[in-house]
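We treat protein structure as text, and this decision shapes the records that our systems exchange. We quote a single record here, exactly as it is kept in our systems:
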Amino acid sequence: FCGARPGEHRPLQSMCDQRYRGALLLFLAGGAHSAWVAGAVSGRSRHGVALAERGGSGGAGRGASLCMVQTVAPGATPGAGRAAAPSTDAEGPPLPLTAGERFALDEKTMSPAALARREEQLERSYELCREITAHYSKTFFMGTRLFPPDKARAVWAVYAWCRRTDDIVDKPRADRTSLRTELTEWQRRLTDVWEGKPYDLIDLALADTVRKFPALTITPFEDMIKGMVMDLDQNRFETFEELYVYCYRVAGTVGLMTMPIMGTADGYTEEDALEPALALGVALQLTNILRDVGEDRHRQRIYIPQEDLRRFGVSEQALIKGVRSDKYVALLKFQIERAREWYKRAEEGVNMLSQEARLPVRASLDMYSSILDKIEANQYDNFEKRAYTTKWEKLALLPGAWLKTRPK
């Protein structure tokens, strides 16, 4: 229909002429099985963004883990361990890069053979990032397939780093001391990436993305690591202001990471689109929190602000026990309305983005906010019922998302 050869994975954005894209979306929503959706494998994730979908047994603060993180003890040299990849990686986990394989920014100094080897490594690196994104976040992955190839690959690289950061906190350990050490080492590796010195094959894609999109800054990546530290030290939030800081660090940062990749429309700057991008991250994380109350209570974690519990007369004990009283339903309605207000703030920024970025972001926004509708449809039972949208329900939202991004 759009010129893709059998078995060829080409993004919808590049496959279709503008004249046919709307028709294709209607065709997909009607029940067609699209190639860009077929690439997604089963799995769930934690971060919102924008962009991503959390779940599994981890709850709102943590997500399911596949132990794909490579960490190194301070002072150790690369080569001492392996980073496990998703189970879809048939070739096995990537080894740390040797000094001779480290990313070279100056291509003029590379021999043809070395350049060819680097390009081969880059292709495999981006493919690993794609697999990680598809495995852990079906909703987010679906949205990224609407980007042009270079931007989709860059977003996958960013997501893979976020996922691995999350997995550092998720993996079993005897005490928290080793975790703090690993997060410190992870910060050092992040700095190395920005200096063009990736540690392993998955880091390589992010180093290449930083090179191709020089407007990317290290700050939101560092802030996300700080969010991981918050999850170590805090399992209650007194006020919404406290919760907002957490939401920014673990989700709002993703909007800042991807903004230089998505680009802005004529007449707008990244500064103009900054607040809506942050709002989307907050909205997504608030949605995660409401969806995962049932899972988080088993871990004695409560993300709903304490001031709100008191306001509606819901005790911690009742929430932990899963008591769905009238007071709890009223509390949940208030939380849902708050999340929708943040989605409304985010909507204002969609048309500030470049044309090619509007549909992926709008579609992700609509798909993710529909989880709130599901909580309502479940009669506000987020203790025993998990709110989610099916693949076909997500596809059905695409035509409306496409229409919302059209010039008025």
Remarks:
- Residues 1-85, 87-92 have pLDDT under 50 and may be disordered.
- DSSP finds 17 helices and no strands in the chain.
- The radius of gyration is 21 Å.
- Residues 133 and 159 are 6 Å apart (CA to CA).
